[in-house]
Design brief:
1 helix, about 160 residues, about 15% helix, 4-stranded antiparallel sheet, about 50% strand, mainly beta
Length: about 160
């Protein structure tokens, strides 16, 4: 007579324990130990797979976000179509004299470069979100590819400098 194995029940117990740990960690990371208090995040995203940047200011993005705390990212890769280097500057902003981010790169001739921007902001009321890139007048055309801008409304925001 063979003895029944207890290994499957141990594996199941380990899987259930691991699942419980993941759920608990998710609640702590969300800043809410009580799941009844948690509000699911809202995600707002805009994209364009190719924007032709001919003038000094790119065709950018501007819109409004509702009241609340957000983490906002923008990413793209910029492709220099010309034979001379370009100083390329991209910005994301939440209004005049407010939170924002800047990334500046030098695009070598016939090259591409990844650009990533991030900002967190608490809008006390509906407010602006803008994104654009600039290059010197007369500089070669830049193809802005795989442009993605995503705002995630979060439950709480703690935005402090290092130190």
């Amino acid at each position: 007579m063979t003895k029944p194995s207890t290994v499957p029940s141990r594996r199941r117990s380990l899987r259930l324990s691991a699942l419980a740990a993941v759920v608990a960690a998710g609640a702590l990371l969300a800043g809410n130990v009580n799941s009844a208090e948690a509000v699911p995040p809202e995600v707002i995203s805009r994209w364009d797979n190719e924007i032709v940047h001919s003038n000094s200011l790119s065709p950018g993005f501007s819109g409004l976000l509702g009241t609340g705390a957000y983490t906002i990212t923008a990413k793209l890769y910029a492709e220099n179509t010309g034979a001379s280097a370009i100083n390329y500057l991209c910005t994301i902003g939440t209004g005049p004299n407010s939170d924002g981010d800047i990334t500046e790169v030098t695009l070598a001739p016939h090259s591409r470069h990844s650009i990533f921007l991030n900002v967190v902001h608490n809008y006390p009321s509906t407010g602006p979100l803008s994104f654009a890139c600039t290059k010197p007048a007369g500089a070669p055309q830049v193809l802005m590819r795989q442009v993605k801008i995503t705002a995630v409304k979060v439950n709480t925001l703690d935005n402090q400098p290092f130190g």
